[in-house]
Each structure stands twice: as C-alpha cells, then as structure tokens.
Amino acid sequence: MKKKLLGLLIFLVIMASVLAGCGTKDDTDAEENKDTTENTAATESKLIVGTEAGFAPYEYMKGNDVVGIDMDIAKAIADSMGKELEIKNMEFDGALLAVQNGTIDFVAAGVSVDEKRQKVMDFSIDYVNSTEVVVVNKENPMVASVEDLAGKIVGVQQGNIADFYVEENIETKEIKRYTKFAQAAEDLKNGKIDCIVMDQFPAEDMVAANPELIILDSTLFEDKYAIAVKKGNTELLDQINTVIQQLKDDGKIEEFTTNHTKK
Description:
Structural class: alpha/beta
Helix content: 40-55%
CATH class of the largest domain: Alpha Beta
Number of domains: 2
Radius of gyration: 27 Å
Oligomer: single chain
Largest sheet: 10 strands, mixed
Strand content: 25-35%
CATH superfamily of the largest domain: Periplasmic binding protein-like II
Order of helices and strands: HEEEEHEHEHEEEHEHEHEEHH
Shape: globular
C-alpha cells in the first residue's frame, strides 16, 4: 500500500512539473510575441533618412542636431505620413548602400541622379537645381579657370556626382576623394590639392568659413538633386513625390533654401 501511495505521489509531482513547464513556455512565448509586436509597431511609427551632415546648406550640424534643406524636406515627408523622422548621419557612400539594403527608408543628401545609380535604386522627382563650381586657394591659385582642370590634382566628395563628372570628363593628374569637405578644404589650403569641385551652396559656405579660399567665376556643370529609395519601393516613392511637388508648388523649398543660406 505504501509503495502504491509513493508511486502516486511521484506521478503527481512529475505531472505538476510538466504542467508548470508548459505554463512557463506559454508565458515566454507571449512575452516574445509582445516584444515582437512592440518592435514592429515602433519601426512602423518611424521613417529613417540617411544623410551626410557635411554638405551645408543641404545638411549640416547645428549643435547636436542635423539640419538643412534636405532635412526640412525629409521632415515634411515624415509629417505627411504621420511618422517620426529618424536621421542617420553617415558617410555619403554608406547612405546610398544602406538604402539599397533597406536598412534606411530613403536618402536625402544632395543626391544626383545618373544611369549607374538608377540601376540599383529609385529616385523621386528633382527638387533643386545645383550648380557645380571650382574652389581654389586664394593666395596661390593653381587653377585659373573652370577650363583649366587638366593635369591638376582635383578634390571631390567620394561618390558625389562631381566625382563621376571629373573622372569621366577631365584628364586630371589625380582625383583625391574625401568623405568630408572639411578635410578637402584643409588640404587645399596646405597645397596638397589644386582645387575642389563641388556644389555652389556648400562651396559658398566653405569659403565663408575659410577666407583663404575662393570660388572661380563661371559654372563647371549643372545638375539636379532627388531623393533615393530602395529599388521597387513605389509606395514610398509615390508619397515622397506628392510631398515634394506640393512643397515646390507652395514655394516651400525656396523658403527652406533662404532659411539655410542666410549669412
């Protein structure tokens, strides 16, 4: 009789353990599902833009914040979608790679459209015309005019449209590629390069901060900027295009430009 009672007791203990284990697993699964739901909701509530905050007035640092024309446009896009804008400050090439991989939603960083890029990402309608100019050392200009770049050491931002233009159209001595224009400016002042090819607005900002530099008269070439999204993301692209067109119609992009180019 004692053996039967002991066996029954052992059986009840084992069953209690099994049931307790099942209950724990269910609770764990519920918590995991809860976490997954919350993470998904958090992701869906944000719109992530990639940029390179060294290209004023389009994107630059103001204290700890990334601001600029492109960031105003990005904020308008996020607001129209009822989402919080999250800004990822990274190298220009890294931003373009990130949008192709889908780790960010779009790139707003003074991005030019060309055939090579169109093969791997999609672009919005253009929102600004850019003018590419040549910056030289004021006291010792090694380049006399925009037609005088052959045989010179030319600085550009890596992956920028100026990089492609100079490589394809000018027989330079060397192209020096930078991730930050600040370093290019220092090298130009120190005679390590002969000139920099870049957008007019950032060039004006650079020269204002570095009186040793000047912008040559006349334009090297003209270009347009657009926003880049992952290839095939037509839903987001349509929403971006709607906002950009409205901003253009309302004169808001000109307003953004004025706000960020006032000296």
